[in-house]
Amino acid sequence: MTGKYPIFDDHEWDNLACTIPLSRRQRDISHCLFRGFRDRQIAEELGLSISTIRTHLSMLFEKTGTQDRVDYILFLLQHFLNNFRQT
Question: Is the pTM of this model over 0.85?
Answer without folding.
Answer: no
